[in-house]
Amino acid sequence: MKSAALEHLVCLNCLSDLQLDSKQTFDNDHPNEIYEGILRCTSCSREYKIVRGVPRFVDENESSPTDIRTGASFAEAWKRFPMMDERYRKQFFDWVFPVDANFLKGKVVLECGCGKGRHAKLLQEAGVKAIYAVDIGEAIDIAYQNVGFQPGVHLVQADIERLPFRRDFDFAFSVGVLHHMESPLSGFQSMSSKVKPTGSIVAWVYGRENNWWLIAIVNPIRELITSKMPSSLLLSLSAVIALPLVLYCKLVARPWMNFRKRHNWVPPLYYGEYLSYIAQFGFTELHHIVFDHLIAPVAYYVPRAYFASWFKEAGWTDSVIRWHNRNSWSGFSSADLQELEYMRKRVKEAADSSLGAVTARSEDRSGLDLEP
Ligand SMILES: C[S@@+](CC[C@H](N)C(=O)[O-])C[C@H]1O[C@@H](n2cnc3c(N)ncnc32)[C@H](O)[C@@H]1O
Ligand SMILES: [Zn+2]
Q1: What secondary structure letter does DSSP report for 227?
Q2: 251 alpha carbon to ligand 2 midpoint, in Å?
Q3: Which of 27, 216, 336, 370 is most buried, by CB atoms within 10 Å?
Q4: How far is CA 182 from each of CA 66, 193, 224, rounded to the nearest angstrom?
Q5: pLDDT tens-digit profile of 149-165?
Q6: Are residues 79 and 51 in the same domain?
Q7: pTM > 0.90: yes or no
Q8: Which alpha helices (H) appear in the chain, and where do they start and end?
């Protein structure tokens, strides 16, 4: 932990400033990082430990047991797949579009549910002033190893429902997390409550639309069987599923979708957008994707209209919702209505231009349902 993090951290109990206890040890490899120590509230008696370089704000008795379990399950996934990959950059900016590196420059950013820290690294490279990335589980330790010591990166173990921050972030985002929470809406509201009155937000969640097979088949299997399996067994099972999946993505889905772009008569391939998208990755990443899907104790598939309502519930005037790969929703909002309209235009232009190469069939257009 860098002492500069104290600028934004507060006590969970009374929202007062925290101060560092005089006794601290530093990371041998990164002397600016406080490795072990204690943060004390300046008003009440509460204190928070700094352990292995990260301040810890999760109290298992105060968070939802489901969310704690979810954090522990994902920590297993990140421990087994801690690798960083250059392709995460494109994937990230696809998820959060219309946000881009230019938009992020100089901002103080909050990431809710950071996993192994792959996005914190990208944000730091994009020139943010600071990125505060939180995760509820031991994923935060993997994140620390990957990015904790980078300048401007602050990692915090915390529950999205109980964020130890002031309301002073320029931008907050969450990718692939809220749908795994016991209460996705209150997670979104909590995240929104830390954005300053002039700020903006992005969330990406699984969509209900087009995901009938995940909801009807995979969800019950995950809930009843795979999320309860020993993780080493699940790792093997995921490998068995990932192998034909890689072959199908690379040998069928990607060529099919590329061919379809040029030949109007080719019929759509179910889930083709997503499968050809993930075909860019190799076996290890697809193994991780399968493992990740099967280990999560909870996953909600969020209907578009309900997702749009989160923004209103959390006090945002309006939002720009985009269908990503025809299986998930990405939503942007900003307190600055001019910025919001500018982003709406960008999303629409990008959608129109991506269709330029294709004949605008009705099923393609349905994914571009931009108005909330
Ligand atoms: C599917 S992973 C996505 C991680 C990261 N956003 C990424 O895309 O690499 C979901 C992450 O959210 C974290 N998470 C789930 N519920 C949380 C909560 N209530 N508070 C903080 N983190 C949470 C999990 O521990 C897990 O690391
Ligand atoms: Zn306090």
Answers
A1: G
A2: 57
A3: 27
A4: 6, 18, 17
A5: 999 999 999 999 999 99
A6: no
A7: yes
A8: 65-80, 88-96, 101-104, 118-126, 139-143, 184-192, 212-213, 219-224, 231-248, 254-262, 272-278, 283-295, 304-313, 337-356, 362-365
Condensed to tens digits (0 to 9), the pLDDT of residues 273-330 reads: 999 999 999 999 999 999 999 999 999 999 999 999 999 999 999 999 999 999 999 9
Q: Which amino acid is at 372?
A: P
Q: Indicate left, alpha or beta for 333 from its phi (over 0: left) and psi (-120 to 50: alpha).
A: beta
Please name the residue that has the structure tokens 């061919």: 259
Greatest pairwise CA separation for the chain in angstroms: 71
180 lines ligand 1 (CB under 6 A): yes
Q: Is 254 a member of any domain?
A: yes
92 Cβ neighbours under 8 A, 6+ residues apart: 118, 119, 122, 175
CA of 135 to the centre of ligand 1 (A): 6
Does some domain include residue 370?
no
360: exposed, middle or buried (C-beta count within 10 Å: 0-12, 13-18, 19+)? exposed
**Terminal alpha carbon distance of the chain:** 40
Same domain, 189 and 269: no
**Same domain, yes or no, for 158 and 273?**
no
What CA–CA distance (Å, rounded) separates 292 from 128?
A: 29
159 lines ligand 1 (CB under 6 A): yes
Question: Is 13 in the same domain as 47?
Answer: yes
Burial of 351 per CB tally in 10 Å (0-12, 13-18, 19+) = middle
The reply to whether 125 falls in a domain is yes
Is there an atom of ligand 1 within 6 Å of 295 CB?
no
| Cis bond upstream, residue 98 (ω within 30) | yes
